[in-house]
Write a structure and sequence with these properties.
This protein is mainly alpha-helical. The chain has 9 helices and no strands. The termini are far apart. The chain binds fe (ii) ion.
Length: 194
């Protein structure tokens, strides 16, 4: 089993460096998404590791956007995160803000799903249900193709992420919608309670 900090300590660190509810929401969404993927892909015993990396992957972004993934190791060291944990966090910025390449499958999933959760979240907010529970892959694909929609979510990174996993884009979308459905309600409740 891979070592990772207790959730309480991880959440406290996240909140120490992030005040924006949108950033907390993104962190909680990626946490839940990574937990779903760990179980789905046969890494259930490391689900806490996958989830906690997801929770803290952007810990430095709000305050140090110019040093994203470079400031993170110092912050993560505050709660004793392992080298392996820090590598996983930093690798999601590969080719964008750092040169730590995603190697482990969990790192590739994080790299691919991070941007896509943003796109799914933006698409969900446009729906009458305001939810991804009734979202189909076909409607997400339309949003993906519309370059003006949620323009901040890099389509190239999402495509590159699917390639690194050896998955089709449809497959990545289908899985990530399911992952996001699994945690949407809990994330909304947590954000409401902030
Ligand atoms: Fe992120």
């Amino acid at each position: 089993m891979k070592a990772c900090p207790e959730r309480e300590a991880a959440l406290a660190l996240l909140k120490k460096y992030n005040a924006e509810p949108f950033h907390i929401q993104h962190a909680l969404t990626v946490e839940g998404t990574m937990r779903w993927y760990a179980n789905e892909l046969g890494y259930g015993e490391d689900a806490d590791f996958w989830a906690t990396v997801g929770l803290l992957h952007d810990v430095d972004f709000e305050q140090w956007p110019e040093e994203h993934c470079k400031k993170a190791p110092e912050l993560l060291a505050e709660i004793g995160c392992s080298e392996e944990f820090i590598h996983a966090v930093c690798s999601h910025g590969y080719g964008l803000c750092c040169d730590v390449e995603p190697t482990h499958e969990m790192e590739k999933v994080l790299f691919a799903a991070d941007e896509l959760t943003g796109l799914i979240g933006a698409a969900a907010r446009m729906r009458p249900s305001k939810s991804c529970q009734d979202m189909e892959v076909s409607s997400l694909k339309k949003k993906f193709k519309d370059k003006k929609f949620a323009a901040g979510c890099s389509r190239d990174v999402i495509k590159d992420g699917a390639d690194r996993l050896g998955w089709t884009l449809e497959d990545l979308m289908e899985k990530t919608i399911l992952a996001q459905r699994s945690c949407e309600e809990a994330v909304n409740a947590a954000v409401e309670a902030l």
